[in-house]
Amino acid sequence: MSSREQILAAVKQHQPEASVLPSLEGLSGSMPGTLEAYRKVLEGLGGSLFEVKDEKEIPALLAEHYPHLQRIITIGSNERAWINEDPHLLENVDMAVVPGLWGVAENGAIWLTEQEVQVRVLPFICQHLAIVLPKSRILPTMHEAYEKIGAPQNGFGVFIAGPSKTADIEQSLVLGAHGAKSLVVFITEA
Amino acid sequence: MNRQTADHATLADRFNENEPRVDWHDQTLWWVRAKRDKMARSIPEWEQLRDTASAIKRNALGNLYEYLIQFEQQATQNGAIVHWAADAAEHNRIVTGILQQHGVRHLVKSKSMLTEECHLNPHLAANGIEVIDTDLGERIVQLAKEPPSHIVLPCIHKKKEEIGELFHEHLGTPAGNADPQFLTAAARQHLRKEFLQAKAAVTGVNFAVAETGEMVVCTNEGNADMGAHLADIHIACMGIEKIIPQRKHLGVFLRLLARSATGQPITTYSSHFRQPRAGQELHIVLVDNGRSRQLGREDFRNSLKCIRCGACMNTCPVYRRSGGHSYHTAVAGPIGAILAPNLDMKDYADLPFASTLCGSCSNVCPVKIDIHQQLYKWRQVLVKEGHTTASKTAGMKMMSGVLSAPRTYRAAGKMGRWVMRAFPGMVNNRLNPWYKQREMPAPPAQSFSQWYEKNKKS
Question: B43-289 maps to which CATH number?
Answer without folding.
Answer: 3.40.50.10420
